[in-house]
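thread: overnight batch results

M.L. [08:02]
morning all. the overnight job finished for the chain we discussed friday. pasting input first so we're all looking at the same thing
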Amino acid sequence: MNEKKYTLEDALNNRKSNNLSIMKLIAAILVIVSHSYTLTGSSQSDVLKTLTNNQESLGGLAVAVFFFSSGLLISRSIQKNYSFKGFFKARVKRIIPSLCIVIVFCTFVMGPILTTLPLFSYITNVQTWKYLLNIVLIPIHSLPGVFINAPYGSVVNGSLWTLPVEFCCYIIVFGLFHTKFLDKKRILLLSPLALLAFVLCNFTTIPLFVSLRNYIQPVLIYYVGVLAYVYRDCISIKNWYGILALILIILCFALGIGKLGMILFAPVLFIVVGFSKKQVSSRIGELGKYSYAIYLVAFPIQQCLVYIFANQMSPLVNSILSILVSFVFAKILLKTESVIFERREKI
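M.L. [08:03]
and the structure it wrote out:
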C-alpha cells in the first residue's frame, strides 16, 4: 500500500516550521560571518565565496533563505489579510518597530559616541537627521564622522538595503493577489518576464541592468517562494529531492551558472529542510525569533568592534564576538520593542 504523499500544503497546514525558524537564525549568523571579511578589510573571502569562485557568498545564501521564506509565507498571509489596511498594517508592525529602535539608537547614542565631529556639529548636521529616513525604508548609509576610517568605509548598517527591496515585493504580491494572478495558471505568465530579468542582469553589460543585479536575484527567489505557495498542493517533500537539489546546485556552480542554480534548485532544498516531517523541538525553534533582530543589529556591532580594535581584527574574531554580542543586543531589542510598542497600543 502506497504511503500518502506529504506535500508542502500539508506542512503549512499542520504546524509551524521550527526548522524554517532555525534556518532563518542560521542565515542571520551567516550574514555576520560573510560581512566579517569585508568589514575587517581582509584579503580573503568567506568559505562559500571561495568554493564557488566568487559566484555566491554566505551572505547571498542567507538573503536567499530570507526572500524565499518571505515569498512563501507572505503569499499565505495575504489570503488571510486581503484588505490593504490589514495586510500592510501586519507588515509594518513586523518590520518597523525594531528597525525604528535600531536607527534611533545608532543616530543618537552610537553616533555621538563614535563621531569625530564635535557633538554640536554632529547633532546639527543634516546628514544626522537624514539617517532617520531609514525608518521609512529610504536607505541612508552613513552618519557624519562615524566609521570614516573603517576598512569598509563609513557605512553604519549595510544590511538594511534588503528591507526596501522586500517591502517592494510585498506591494507586488499584494497587487498580484488583487489582480487574480496568484493562481496556478496566471502566476506562470510572469515566468518569461522573470527569465528576461535574469538574463538581462546576468548576461549583459547594459549599465542599468548591471546596477540592478544584486536586487533582481533576491526578487526572483522571492517569486519562486510565491510559486511554491501557489503550487503547494503539488509539491511533494521527500529527502532525496533535497539531495538531488544540492547536487544540481553544485553542478551549476561548477558550470559557472551558480546564480541560476540558486534560483531554480536552492528553494527545493529550503523546502525539504524547512518543512520536513522531522522538526527540531519547539524550544530550539523558538530561538528563530531572534533572526530579524540579529540581522538589524549585527552590522553596526561589527563596525564598532573593528573601531575598538583599531582596524586590527581578523574575520574569525570579528565573527565570534559579533555573534555573541548580537544575540545580547537582539534580546534587548525585542524586550525594548515589547515595552515601548505594546504599551503604546494599550494606551
